[in-house]
Design brief:
Blueprint lengths: L12 E5 L8 H13 L2 H21 L3 H15 L11 H13 L3 E5 L9 H10 L8 E4 L8 H12 L3 H6 L3 E5 L11 E3 L8 H10 L3
Parallel strand pairs: 1-2, 1-4, 2-3, 4-5
Helix pairs in contact: 2-3, 3-5
Amino acid sequence: MKIENDVNSENSKYLFLDIDGVINSAQSNVKYAKQWNESSQEFRDEVLAYMKEQMELIQESGFRYGKLHLARARSVEKFGIGVEGGTKPDPEAMANLNSLCEEIPDLNIIISSTWRVDSTIDELREIFKLWGMQTPEKIFGKTADSFDRPRSDEILDWLSAQGFHYDNLKLENNIAILDDMDDMGTLNPSLIKTDAEVGFSRADRGRVLKLYNI
């Protein structure tokens, strides 16, 4: 998918963003699951009833994962916690993402997580807004839908579709990849590998800024 905004070029900063293990962390998942299990049965029944209603609406209009992710995010916004405690970001990770966006005005975020599959850009922006992202408009792209290709290939394909060259972006300190996996192949020099246990940390944010030469 070619971007439409002419102001975005190889002179801008690009961040390829994973979600699980980056924005969602293992420690936050355990915390929210505990909160769910300790909630009253009445509360859990109310959340489950809401999600059942949302699922019926999704099925009627044609199922897509993006609709499901968004319904779960709305559930968290409405009730403070989702079913089984899921679909809620790590607060420190989100705070670090907000700080990064504030520190880099020309930052452009491309979702490379599997959350992008069957999701529209507008859905992804709303999900991040519900999660507390202050500038969801910085999310303007996603890599192509697939489950069986190396993520590095998907990122390279996205860059090629824009007419960008990885080596140029790397040379100008204009590309970073945030992921909890380290299978980026030739893109490893631009990878900031997060610890999935804690997600996107303050130290990781510093490493991203260093990659951008900021």
